Fold these 2 entries.
Entry 1:
Amino acid sequence: MNPLDDIPRGTEVLLHICCAPDAAYGVRSLRDRFDVAGFFYNPNIHPREEFRKRLLSTLDLQEKVPFPLLVGNGGEAAWEDAARGMEDEPERGRRCEACVRMRLRETARKAVELGMPAFGTVLTVSPKKDAAMVNRVGREEGARTGVRFAEADLKKGNGTLESVRISKELGLYRQRYCGCRYSFR
Ligand code: SF4
């Protein structure tokens, strides 16, 4: 059974966006069911120029689709704290869980602030992300804050290939590494 079936159609969902290519497929996929607003919040991205490219590309997508989009600021120092001591962890390891958690925690907090009953993320479009971990963290942060987490594995059903296809079609910037300085290295 699809866990999204547990959330009534038309529910307002604040959808965490990490980058335009993942959002290109993720927003399209979830807005078939829900009233989706995007939330770009990524204090993990290094260097600043790369952050700017990913944000501008997401704004470009928003104009072309279009969909409501909020941009979260700050959190860089908190991200450094969360990653400290885990610099040499491999991708999909403990550092990535902490990184996903802080971004989903802020998305859940923002959903509460906006009076939205649910939140989600497009992170699972990427084949490099452990969807089981992302969904567990989402459920935990949802339980902590009292908002529903829209659990999904968006790479299923050709989600990854679709995100590449749509990105090319729309001329979106596609990054070559996950985001933080350790993945850049
Ligand atoms: S590799 Fe990606 S998910 Fe992991 S800590 Fe770095 S930016 Fe976050």
Note: The longest helix spans residues 94-114.
Entry 2:
Amino acid sequence: MTVPPPARPTPTADGAADARRKGTPGDVRDATGHADAAPAPDDLGLVVAGTRLLTTPDGGLPRVGELPATTGWVPLGTLDGVPAWLTETTGTGDPAVGRWRSWRALAAELPEPVATLAGRAVAVATWRRTHRWCGACRAALADVPGETARRCPDCGLYVPLRLSPAVLTAITRPGPAGGPTELLLVRHASGPTELWALVAGFVEAGESLETAVRREVHEEVSLDLDTIDYFGSQPWAISGPGVLLAGFTATVADPGAEPVVDGRELVRARWFPVDALPVELPPAYSISRWLIDAVAARARP
Ligand SMILES: [Zn+2]
């Protein structure tokens, strides 16, 4: 838990840029983390409907005092020391102030720590909406103060927001005849089908991240890997509550092997020289793109 400092600086794009320069992931603090009992007008107010958030007319996150009288606030954490609160609504009709925007749109435009907080709001709202009843005895669950968790008042079952780890892998091979390194990109059968993306999938029970990488790559493109290196991670707000993406780079075991797609999850897979990647790549705010850009930069002479 994080106790807010007495001063409440305004979160700014400059602050976010500073945080990135220092190599810190931003100042979004943990869990339900602040001690205030009710929002102050200067606190951030995140209003979520499904996967959309209410923003100010200029597209940023509103202060609680800018919103019409709203109830049901849940502590969400802090951003640069400013307490943030979440409330859910069902309608996305014309708001009295601002406008509704998707998390994707916010992530594409706002500084990373702000987008991360917005993503956390969507994840927590989704979890709260889909974890209302005890899975063991069907009683209504009650919030656990100070945690993103609920507990059953009848049988005591503890229900935290559990994370779902997923892995994605940038697979490379040496270019033919000393040419540029090649990167394997795939097109999916569903979701954003127009993008050339990376092999990805959820980790299964009993697997390490590395085991999941090898299994997914084998299942989806019938390739075996040589070395695997951890790259970084990103919370992902779109694919359900609590998805955590872990990115890896890997080299293929047999540089002469060609990918074979399953035709079910993937419709295409091919090697691209890193100096001639397609333009239809994942968005700049995604770890998929960070991986692709890092592999391309590393292979440059
Ligand atoms: Zn129960």
Note: The domain at 164-299 is CATH 3.90.79.10 (Nucleoside Triphosphate Pyrophosphohydrolase).
